[in-house]
Each structure stands twice: as C-alpha cells, then as structure tokens.
Amino acid sequence: MGAAGYVVQLSQETRSLASEYRRLLARTEKLSARNGELASQVSEQTRLIESRREELRSAESTASGIDALLADLVLRLEHFVEDGVPFLLEERRARIQRLRTFLASSATAVDKYGRILEAYQIEEEYGRTVDVYAGKLAADERPVELLRIGNVLLLYHARVGSGTGYWNTEQKVWVADDDYEKAVLKGIRIANKKDAPDLIVAPIPAPRSRTEVKR
To answer: Where are the domains of the chain?
Structure first.
C-alpha cells in the first residue's frame, strides 16, 4: 500500500473512531441524565419512607396513649364499684372483667370506648333508680331484703324477725339501726310499686373530701 492509500485508510479509521466516540459520548450523557433522574427519585422515595416511618411512630404513640386512657377509664369504674355500696357486685364486677377482655381484643378504639361508655351509662342509670332484692348479710348470713336507693345508699330489713340497718361506705360495714325501720319498709313498698313515690328519710352518707377518694 502506498503512502496515499495508507493516509486514506487512517483517515477513515479516524472518522470511524470519532463517530464511535460521539455515539458513546451521547450515550454517556443520556445515562448520566438518567442516573440523575434515578438519584432524584431515590432521594424522594427515601424522604417519603422516612415520613411514613415518622407517621407510624406517631400513630403507635397515639395508639399507646389511647390504650392507656381506655384502661384508666375501666380502672376508675372499678374503683367506683368497689368503693361504693356493694349492690349487685357479681354482676357489676363481671361487666368490668368483660371490658378488660374486650380491651385486649383487636377491636377498634372507637368500639372499645363505646363499650366502656355503655358500662358508665349503666352505673349512671343505677343512680336514678330504686330497687329491692333478696340477699344475705355477710356478717351472719341472715336473709334480708336489700333496698338500693340510687348508687349511694343500701339498706336492709330482716326477712325473719326484725332488724334494720344500712351499709356504711366509709367503714365498709353494715350498721344496725332500727330507727330507720319505717323508712326502709316504706322504701321497699315504693320499690315494689305498692306505694306511690314519696320522700324517704334515710341515713345518706356524708360526701368524702377529694383527698380521701381512692383513685
């Protein structure tokens, strides 16, 4: 090959290399742009993930706070039952136990709160009613008629013989007091709807100061 032919061949190879270089350069620029886009997307996704994690942490903290609040409401209800007059204790304690079981379930916080609210409403209803039912005094197993007035007063009258008294919420003992026999018998007749509603003179316990109330 002569010198001229060699120059021509070299020129062609140079143009081919230059073309390949430009092609590779263009591809590199596209890849660089694409990498930039991907980097931006990755950065945005990372930000979103961190945001979601923060939301989850906040939600978990809120859920934990709600659970604690619901548990406290049930505990307060239990104290109200145990510190008050001991009427229908088995029924009321069983209701509280069902509440605790329900709080441990997978039910929503709204449903749990609704169930607790129902229990509070039942206790509130007790406070507006008068009831009489058969029972026994724990002290001597005497059969008595128990007269409940609201949720603040529980009186008894012996079903055999005589004997009248009331529950002392401060000392948590039954107090015999026949001075209230007529009032108790009248209250029993009213609760049984044998007499019309009327004023009853009964030993209403004095309210406790705030510092004496158990929490």
So the answer is: 65-126, 131-204
